[in-house]
Write a structure and sequence with these properties.
By secondary structure, this protein is an alpha/beta fold. The chain has two domains: 3-118, 2-Layer Sandwich (Transcription Regulator spoIIAA), CATH 3.30.750.24; 129-250, Transcription Regulator spoIIAA (2-Layer Sandwich), CATH 3.30.750. It is built from eight helices and twelve strands. The strands form three sheets. A five-stranded mixed β-sheet has the order 1-2-4-6-7, with helices on both faces. A five-stranded mixed β-sheet has the order 8-9-10-11-12, with helices on both faces. It has a two-stranded parallel sheet with strand order 3-5. Helix 7 links the parallel strand 11 and strand 12 (233-237). Helix 1 packs parallel to helix 2. The chain starts with a strand and ends in a 14-residue tail after the last helix.
């Protein structure tokens, strides 16, 4: 059977192993077992081991969608463990739509996934413990530097609005945006994802150039997609080329900046 489910800690901790190609029949056997665990134990913590998993048969894809819609709310913390890049990408893009805390782990860090599942779910939600997005607005050039190193929150985009909108109102546009990141941070929830989309929609025509500084192959693909969707010049720089990114952004200064202007 390609899906194996094991109960731990009285039933509220599950390890789900999937291998090979999943079929509709696999879901017909798995779903009742999962529903029984959720009914008896309430919110579950799940270690989803995808090592050796290669995807779904056509009919099974619909079963997966139905399972996600109906049962993701039964999970409070989900550790996804995999050995393929597409599995990591899938986890990243599922994160904004899952109510559960979700984290991806490489198959070599199985113990780390288990440790993370054992942590308190309540961590990181208090105002005093919030991990804020690092940013800097360079003046008078009008260049915004972002350094995301944790999942993005709605509050991050509210802070950015307050920081850059006065400059844009004064000068019309930002000369550039530099995003320096080691990996794609994702979002803490669906509301943050929506806030990100709204931020892009309201600001992409007010930025001349976008420099992405990263060695991440995944992040390196984002500017290529962005260049087709938004009106902005995009260039990718590796970590070793970081010093070249800022001069490239400065060369795009669209206005004659007022050296006496200050953001209050």
């Amino acid at each position: 059977m390609p899906i194996h489910i094991n109960e731990h800690s009285g039933g509220n901790f599950l390890t789900v192993h999937v291998k090979g190609i999943l079929s509709q029949a696999d879901y017909e056997r798995f779903v009742p077992k999962f529903e029984n665990c959720a009914r008896q134990n309430g919110k579950l913590r799940v270690l989803f081991d995808m090592t050796g998993f290669h995807g779904w048969e056509a009919a099974a894809i619909w079963q997966e969608i139905k399972f996600d819609v109906k049962h993701l709310a039964d999970i409070e913390r989900l550790a996804m463990v995999g050995d393929m890049n597409w599995q990591r990408v899938m986890a990243i893009f599922c994160k904004p739509f899952a109510k559960a805390k979700l984290q991806y782990f490489d198959h070599t860090d199985f113990a780390g996934a288990r440790t993370w599942l054992d942590e308190s779910v309540a961590t990181g939600n208090k105002m005093g413990e919030r991990h804020l997005l690092k940013y800097q607005l360079l003046l008078p050039e009008g260049i915004l530097i972002l350094e995301p190193d944790a999942p993005l929150e709605t509050a991050d985009f509210d802070r950015l609005d307050r920081e850059i909108d006065p400059y844009i109102a004064k000068h019309g546009k930002l000369s550039g945006l530099m995003i320096h990141a080691n990996a794609f941070p994702g979002w803490v929830n669906l509301e943050a994802f929506r806030a990100h989309l709204q931020f892009i929609e309201s600001h992409h025509q007010k930025i001349i150039r976008l420099a992405m500084v990263t060695d991440s192959k995944l992040l390196g693909e984002f500017p290529k997609i962005a260049s087709r969707l938004v009106h902005v010049q995009v260039k990718i720089f590796s970590e070793s080329q970081r010093e070249e990114a800022l001069p490239w952004l400065k060369a795009a200064t669209p206005v004659s900046p007022d050296p006496h202007w200050k953001h209050e």
